[in-house]
Amino acid sequence: MATHDSLRTLGDLRRAGTTVPAHPSVRDEVRTNLIRKLTAGDALFPGVVGYDETVVPQLVNALLSRHHFILLGLRGQAKTRLLRSLVTLLDDAVPVVPGCEIHDDPLQPLCAACRARVAIEGDDLPIAWLGRDDRYVEKLATPDVTIADILGDVDPIKAARGALQLGDELTMHYGLLPRANRGVFAVNELPDLAGKIQVGLFNILQEGDVQIKGYPVRLRLDVLMAFTANPEDYTARGKIITPLKDRIGSEIRTHYPATRHEAMAITAQEAWIDRGGDQPVELPPYVREIVEEIAFQARGERRIDKRSGVSQRLPITCLENVASSAERRALLHGESPSVAGVIDVYAALPSMTGKFELEYEGELKGADALARDLIRAAVATVFTGYFENADTREVVEWFDAGGTVQIDERGTAAALVKEAARIPGLLDLVRHIGVERRAPAPAVASALGFVLEGLYATKKISRSDDRGYHATETPAPRRPGRAAAETEFEDMPPLPGGKKKYYN
């Protein structure tokens, strides 16, 4: 069977017609390779987690239907990753005319220059092979993109050098879309593309050709077009014009991970936490769960703009910062191993506050304070999962009796364990998260910090900057016979005459 190395001229390609037939269209090529992968049970989109039962079946249907398609979803939902993975459904390489800007097929050239070369050189025309990665063209849509950027324009310099008329096809400077010929052309954030530019995509989507600069130049391009958009952008920064939406074959909705387990798998895949070297960083499961739960809490928080979404990049960057905080602390104290704890999650605030847009109430509270609230809510949720059946009464009663413990963020792990040993029953609780009392001090210290912060997050004890962890404040007793609504105004200033007014 003929190979790429043995096919070096147009004549070689023609003589090998029985083994290397004329190359199919891109959409047929993708369909054929997709069917082959489905039949073999191969992974279709490596690295994409949580879409096996939702997005992937819809995308497969679109590709089997030979559709151009659009992915609609909030930021951080792997839309771009899905688009870039389309190259895995392309052939290893396709024959092209060397030097052609639009990767012309030597057997069926489109542009005038390639047709002229084939006519002159015939079977002696050398051919090149274009790899699958070079057949993917991506453009981020911005308001300043012009029609020339996408489709092309007349190049007066070419006309002058070749003594050509401006309407001659050889004077054309091709844009990104023609340069994606015989490949995949992807547009990110389609609504940001100006309406008149979107109109320029009509022909290629429906009729399969493109016209440049009003001259009678028509190129029947062979491309698979894919788009992404934020559904809220239809009414925010821009919109997808209706005729263009009508020409896009399939509209596929993406989503955030449905479970914490799926989200943790994505974060573990994307986050840079394997630092290597002589100081490895350990990230206990409960720390990973807390980091992931922060994003889930943020997506349900009314003070955060849901239209903007909370990207999966939040837990990814947060976990990286958590690992760095634990690494820094271990280096300062000369401790090994380096074990992350809740204290490092709070140290990772800078990686969170820029990842969400605030509503008016959130702006009043501030991003930093809101992020702390999210951490406490995440700790409470994860703590409840680990300690739902644990008996924490002995520890809580010690605090209720007046006990306090101050966790020094700058202290060593051994010092924290020694301080916590004063609290009856506290060291026994760490077994609920799989840590033995005789484990290395950094691991025990991390577990103790989680227990204390969990008791605080679930409102069994309190915490303050000056006193550390202490008993919850006892609310002032109500007077007998007084309505609850009255006590809320107990501190109201008296009316003239010294009498207080109570509101029902």
Structural summary, described in words:
The chain has 504 residues and is of the alpha/beta class. The chain has three domains: 10-145 and 180-189 and 222-253, Rossmann fold, CATH 3.40.50; 260-470, no CATH class; 476-504, no CATH class. It is 39% helix and 11% strand. The strands form six sheets. Strands 4-7-10-1-11 form a five-stranded parallel beta sheet. Strands 2-3 form a two-stranded antiparallel ribbon. Strand 8 and strand 9 (218-219) form a beta hairpin. Helix 12 crosses helix 13 and helix 13 (285-299) packs antiparallel against helix 14 (313-333).
Principal-axes geometry comes out as: elongated
Major pleated sheet: 5 strands, parallel
Number of helices: 22
Taken together, the total number of domains comes to 3
Give the radius of gyration. Answer: 32 Å
Low-confidence stretches: 481-504
Question: How much strand content do the residues show?
Answer: 5-15%
Strands of the largest sheet, in order across it? 4-7-10-1-11
Helix content: 25-40%
Q: What's the assembly state of these chains?
A: single chain
Number of strands: 15
Structural class: alpha/beta
Distance between the termini: 92 Å
- Kindly report the average pLDDT value: 85
